[in-house]
Design a protein that fits this description.
This is STE24 endopeptidase. With 355 residues, this protein is mainly α. The longest helix is centred in the last third of the chain and has 32 residues. The structure holds zinc ion.
């Protein structure tokens, strides 16, 4: 029963995605079509992945994998977990992604390249899930109790510090050109600014990552330089620099890590029960939302002080107009979202009176 449902899910996901995508792009406005398409694609992927993982967890799949893998039990458990994620989550989500390709091709007026879409998607999923699997692997292999928890915390810290260093060596990441370097504001001096080439699917985005002194990075996509004027790019880089300078990277790590701690403590047998720690983790994750949202306002404030509030506001307005940032939304989404809405951020920036 579960096996049949798991087998059919990707096909259903593909069909629903094709239909939704063609409905979402029924507008002559290409920017609006792209925004709707991206949103529908993301929502559907989350929905089918959740359904698939629930089905796979409830099925005999992981037990079968655990039994089939030779060697230590930890290895089998990890393989079972990977099987659940790949079969239940990745396969149907990829089907949704592929189902939206024809509509996406109509919007971008470029023929869909399915081979490339699959390769990029799998790379994205690997980058997203590999660190989580590494941490879980360490946890399974480590002794139970507090030493195990310490090992997990150390592994997570090593990944947070080391992954940006690895990413910076990736072929698609380069040093800024002379012209791009001219946009980097004074306040980002000492940080490693790197440009991510996005080629055929340009996404204007920026990210602060890394924790080791001398190895703190600001990643900026090439599309950001193409989308924004020089002053607005400088403001965005200053915003990311602000995340480093005001210790937001560490604050976020601690907020999310602290929220997940009850679940790990319960799984390690240090906390009794399952439900109470799980509830505690959910509550702490909800509480982490406002903290992370505050870091966005604070980084905007940093950018406004070190470049200009007008340029930062212009950057937000342009990115929002391109559908790259959520402009406004319902209360519920705002409550659980990690990013404040652009309207809120622009409002705060307008309070910055340039004297
Ligand atoms: Zn930010």
């Amino acid at each position: 029963m579960h096996a049949t449902a798991l087998g059919v899910l990707p096909a259903v996901a593909y069909a629903v995605s094709r239909l939704t995508a063609s409905l979402a792009t029924r507008t002559p406005d290409r920017t609006l079509a792209a925004t709707r398409l991206r949103r529908a694609n993301r929502l559907l992927q989350v929905a089918v992945a959740l359904a698939g993982v629930a089905l796979a967890t409830d099925s005999l799949l992981d037990d079968a994998v655990v039994a089939a893998v030779p060697g230590p039990t930890a290895l089998g458990v990890l393989a079972g977990l990977a099987g659940t994620v790949v079969v239940g989550g990745v396969a149907p989500a990829l089907a949704v992604h592929l189902g939206s390709r024809p509509a996406w091709a109509a919007v971008t007026r470029a023929a869909p390249d399915y081979g490339r879409a699959v390769r990029r998607y799998l790379l994205f999923v690997t980058v997203l899930t590999a660190p989580a699997f590494a941490v879980v692997g360490v946890w399974l292999a480590a002794p139970s109790g507090l030493p195990g928890l310490a090992a997990v915390a150390l592994a997570a810290l090593a990944l947070a510090a080391g992954l940006p260093v690895l990413a910076a060596r990736h072929a698609g990441v380069r040093e800024p050109t002379e012209r791009e370097r001219a946009c980097v504001p004074e306040c980002a001096r000492g940080l490693r600014v790197r440009v991510v080439d996005t080629s055929r699917s340009p996404v204007a985005n920026a990210l602060a990552a890394g924790a080791l002194p001398g190895y703190r990075y600001v990643f900026v996509t090439d599309a950001l330089f193409a989308t924004l004027d020089d002053d607005a790019v400088a403001a965005v880089v200053a915003h990311e620099a602000g995340h480093h300078r005001r210790a937001h990277v560490a604050v976020r790590f601690l907020a999310v890590g602290g929220a997940l701690a009850p679940v790990f403590l319960a799984a390690g047998g240090i906390l009794p029960g399952v439900l109470a720690p799980a509830v505690a983790s959910v509550v702490l994750l909800l509480a982490a939302g406002p903290v992370v949202r505050w870091t966005e306002f604070d980084a905007d404030d940093y950018a406004a002080r070190h470049t200009s509030p007008v340029a930062m506001e212009r950057a937000l307005a342009t990115l929002a107009a391109r559908g790259l940032l959520a402009e406004d939304r319902g209360r519920l989404v705002g409550l659980v979202s990690l990013h404040p809405s652009v309207d809120d951020r622009r409002g705060r920036l307008q309070d910055h009176n340039p004297h």
